[in-house]
Amino acid sequence: MMPLYFPEDKTEYIIPAIVCVLFLIGAVATWRMFIKSSEREAKNLQEMEKRIMGREER
Q1: Among 40, 44, 22, which residue's Cα sits nearest to residue 32?
Q2: Transmembrane segments in this chain: where (predicted)?
Q3: Residue 24: other Cβ atoms inside 10 A
């Protein structure tokens, strides 16, 4: 097994921290995109349902 590596120079943590933050930002952006898309789809579905129900009532 490989031993854990903890660098003496703590500046080596900067690049992995930046990468982690970038991935978190990307994950949040993707999450928001899915939420907005699903809200848009729900709105379109409600409008379509109203049109269909309006035609059946006549």
Answers
A1: 40
A2: 13-35
A3: 10
